[in-house]
């Protein structure tokens, strides 16, 4: 998180069950070298304590607009301008409504009104509250004023309902903060990257897979984030560390990967590096036992993620596919690019032993040419491809 090191973030914690996650956020921000100035609303104090927050932030917790000692040390006007970013997490429906209405009836809303510092909000609330017309109008007002809204995630909530409204996971919050401080030609662009293999279950114990290590996809995700992009990395089962500033979504099967890519849309570009299994198995509910002979497996065709994305109504401006072939590389790659409908295709000959290796040899095909990039490290290929993508915008 080199982009955020040395920065100061004013963290406003609203009142909701997700407030406890703000403690993890403070810890991760401090690890990344960020100074965190915590502001705890009265409602937020119902869920987290000043002692815990102050211990993790290593700063005093600001609570009241009328605290004489705080005002003497750092008045609310100075405090509102002391940070590089004001982050409201969680941002409740009530807190966003008061901010949108220009109210200043407590320390949090006064800070938001008295600042020219960039503001980011991470909403968290019941799905009905998030989808209510009043909340949607408040969000639109805040966005129009330049507030960055980190979209809530879809999932089960403490109230027992399921839908959009969950506070984004820690990795997504950190990526959003890093993205705010990013610089580079891809700032403001969202790129989806898929990486690694898929596992297709045979029974509760066994699965069909391939030899993809995920190294190339992870390197590309890191290179794109380094150029300022907001990167959603949909990763098959691999044991690789998440690149800095990247939002990672872990999946296992091709169907799960297709659903995760769909959920990540819209995007400006997509780089489909994953080695997705063409076929899945109609899996048994119990472990298959040895018998008179090998079990007969019933196969089913998996979704074609690359072709589906290339023809999607929310198709990214740039869709990049990958092809792992054995022999007659260029002819197969040209045919695949045409069949899938992608803009570019990056092809390599996997008979040369590139699975799991740190080096590769790729050809990049578009509608006009086929470039031989020669033998290079996967990191070098990733950087070159990321720059090529940046040039496309």
Q: Enter the CATH topology name of the largest domain.
A: Rossmann fold
Shape: globular
Approximate helicity band? 25-40%
User: What structural category do the secondary elements indicate?
Assistant: alpha/beta
Counted by DSSP, the helix tally is: 14
In whole angstroms, the N-to-C terminal distance is 25 Å
Which CATH C-level class of the largest domain is it?
Alpha Beta
Compute the number of structural domains.
Answer: 2
Radius of gyration: 24 Å
Strand content: 15-25%
Query: Could you name the ranges where pLDDT drops below 50 across 5 or more consecutive residues?
Result: none
Mean pLDDT: 89
Most strands sheet? 8 strands, mixed
Going by CATH, the homologous superfamily of the largest domain would be: CoaB-like
Verbal overview:
The chain has 393 residues and is α/β, with parallel strands linked by helices. The chain folds into 2 domains: 173 residues, Flavin prenyltransferase-like (Rossmann fold), CATH 3.40.50.1950; 203 residues, Rossmann fold (3-Layer(aba) Sandwich), CATH 3.40.50.10300. 33% of the residues lie in helices and 24% in strands. It is built from 14 helices and 19 strands. The chain has an 8-stranded mixed β-sheet, with helices on both faces. It is globular, with a radius of gyration of 24 Å. The two termini are 25 Å apart.
